[in-house]
Fold this sequence. Notes:
It contains 16 helices and 12 strands. It folds into 2 domains: 28-57 and 319-462, Aspartate Aminotransferase, domain 1; 65-316, 3-Layer(aba) Sandwich (Aspartate Aminotransferase, domain 2). It is α/β, with parallel strands linked by helices. Pyridoxal-5'-phosphate is lined by residues 58, 105-107, 130, 132-133, 188, 192, 221, 223, 261, 263-264, 272.
Amino acid sequence: MTNQSxxxxxxxxxxxxxxxxxxxxxxxxxxxxALEEAGFNTFLLRSGDVYIDLLTDSGTSAMSDxxxxxxxxxxxxxxxxxxxxxxxxxxxxxYGYRYVVPTHQGRAAEHIISRIMIKEGDIIPGNMxxxxxxxxxELAGGQFIDVIVDEAHDPDSEFPFKGNVDxxxxxxxxxxxxxxxxxxxxxxTSVNMAGGQPISLANLRELRELxxxxxxxxxxxxxxxxxxxxxxxxxxxGYRDAAISDIVLEICSLTDGATMSAKKxxxxxxGGFLAVNNEEIFEEARNLVVVYEGLHTYGGMAGRDMxxxxxxxxxxxxxxxxxxxxxxxxxxxxxxxxxxIPVVQPIGGHGVFIDAAxxxxxxxxxxxxxxxxxxxxxLDSGVRAMERxxxxxxxxxxxxxxxxxxxxxxxxxxxxxxxxxxHMDVVAASVNAVFRKRESIGGLRMIFEPRYLRFFQARxxxxx
Length: 464
Ligand SMILES: *Cc1c(COP(=O)(O)O)cnc(C)c1O
């Protein structure tokens, strides 16, 4: 791999390893039984039966020595913990938002902001849905409508900013429903469901101009803002020499508030927050957090967890860290592309997304190609991946039919700082082994389906 400055010198992780966790290897017969017991759903596997775990980058990152040291400074006071003030200061200085409400993770912040801002019959436009975000918008009485650019739905398009908002689509919604029915525009940075694709600052600025005309706020899902900032630095004109920290601040300055799952970019195993600039919304959020999470100075987190998060926020926007983090994901993506495996391009920030529809073209979408592929890769090597296709897309609220998303993807998500390049080589070899026998692979049938977020707990069996 060429390093980020373009030279052919080898590249290495910008850290050395101080603590190790042994990995368990298993044989094919063992994995076959484990998979049956898990109903062919990788979410239902026991982690102890997994070799390299690429299910998610959520809460799976390795903390630094500085973060572990901060854990020891935990102030576990019920009220007014010192760590809350450290966290508040870290958020204000790294992101620029004024008011902070800690939550146990991202979806709790989504719940609170949705309850405060959305009323029955509202429309929430956004740059592609995220599962928990959309669910909380719907539970609050709203309807999410996708206004992402068309390129985002095309796995072959190499458009560099597939997270961009199509401003004509948004204008169309404003004309059709009226600005009063749009409580905010929901903008994710490094759009998860599109394959970790960034929004550009130019697009965000135009969006800001358009929404300001109608007095519509922007709420930012900033779960992967650092990865988005990295893509702006390397892809957007005028930012090559800008600091990641400045790009992050600029992104946040174009929005009115944010929900954060700190389990991703911010390098902690648990945590999140809601941050807003509007004082009235803050007061309401501070009130609701007491009902659903805990007092407003801990909101579901232990003091030590807030301390680790305060440090993690700083580390997440470090130049060497973010270059290596995204660089490792690119490395895996390049290995797969070299083997001819169909992946979403450009390679995203937090994972490599395989186009399961093209990997297994003989399967119908309701035979769950991506779910099938996740099962097959686990069987091959014990590597765990995740479905992002028809199972994740759920059912239409009104008709009860499956939603048929245009993207039927298998996600190999890379935890931050947890695995090495050698692990990436092993993963690529396993996907390649499954690819070579793809024609012999049959689909799945769903035999149990939970009502909400079915991908977490649905069960399957072979044969459709
Ligand atoms: C993970 C995630 C969330 C939800 O956060 P949790 O911490 O899992 O509750 C929201 N938005 C995006 C984009 C995410 O990736």
